[in-house]
Amino acid sequence: MNENWMQKYEEVKNILVCPTDLETYFTSDEIVGEKMEVMEIGNVSLPSGKVVVRAPFFMTADEKPYVFETLKGNFPVSVAVVKNETWGDRYAAVKVKFTDEKPVVYREGLIGNENLDDLEDADFFGFFVDAGLACIADAEVLPVFDAFLHSLDVDNIYDGYFSELFAKSYQENPNNQRKSGDWINWTIPNTNFQIPIFTSGFGDGMYPVYFAYDMNENICGLYIQFIDIELSLAEEDEEDDEENKQPENFVFLR
């Protein structure tokens, strides 16, 4: 990040705003007719306030955090679950709550090296999910996380260590989880650092992260949007319409 990048960001930041009021995912019983449920999954440790959201088993110790720092400390994390007949139970969004203030705008989290030229409405950068999992961590915790992973004498990090923790999470909290487990709140052994790890809404892909600002322009929350519920339902309806469309000159035989 440099002065030119920050100047450009100020010019385009209103393009990189989430059009959805993400807090409604956590306060509404239904979104466009789809039942919603919220799970509390414990805290995330942010000792420096330098937030990193990534696929957990592909992070390195020197991942770049988002340019805007949050409050420091341990903060509660919740998951908004959408219950759809076609999709099943899916994690639509994840929230870190920093204060009790109400969000008034959601600006995408950036790491300071993005190309901000030629942006259009609905563009976002996001982070890449691999192996269907994402996590929230602090940049100063990553070296500890990385050192622990390298200390494991396993061929596959998930199968050799984490799968058992996910299965235990299901046993203890079966709601909104598959038997193999869909979330854990993991404390790095021999530390107090908590890193929540959870499945992404529709598996691997790119997902945006937004910082929520209150009316005083202070950061009050962080939101990962895995599913744009209204958009996804609209696209599903369009696909159904295409499948049900009659070919031209179609004749019913009686």
Question: How would you sum up this structure, described in words?
Answer:
Helices cover 22% and strands 31% of the residues. It has 254 residues and is α+β, with helices and mostly antiparallel strands. The protein has one domain. The strands form three sheets. Strands 1-2-4-5-13-12-6 form a seven-stranded antiparallel β-sheet. The protein has a four-stranded antiparallel β-sheet with strand order 3-8-10-9. A hairpin with a 3-residue loop joins strand 4 and strand 5. The chain is globular. The N and C termini lie far apart (70 Å). 32% of the residues are buried. The C terminus is likely disordered.
Query: Spans of 5+ residues with little confidence (pLDDT < 50)?
Result: 243-254
The strand order across the widest sheet is 1-2-4-5-13-12-6
Query: Could you state the order of secondary-structure elements as H and E?
Result: HHEEEEEEEEHHEEEEEH
Structure classification: alpha+beta
- Share of residues in strands: 25-35%
Number of separate domains: 1
Secondary structure: number of strands? 13
Query: Distance between termini?
Result: 70 Å
The main pleated sheet reads as: 7 strands, antiparallel
**Anisotropy-based shape:** globular
- How many helices? The count is 5
* Overall residue-averaged pLDDT value: 91
Helix fraction bin = 10-25%
Rg from Cα: 20 Å
Provide a short characterization of the protein structure.
This protein is of the alpha+beta class. The protein is 22% helix and 31% strand.
What's the structural blueprint in terms of helices and strands?
Elements: H1 3-12, H2 24-27, E1 30-31, E2 34-46, E3 51-54, E4 73-84, E5 88-97, E6 105-108, E7 127-129, E8 133-138, H3 142-151, H4 157-172, E9 183-187, E10 194-199, E11 205-207, E12 209-213, E13 219-225, H5 229-244
Antiparallel strand pairs: 1-2, 2-4, 3-8, 4-5, 5-13, 6-12, 7-11, 8-10, 9-10, 12-13
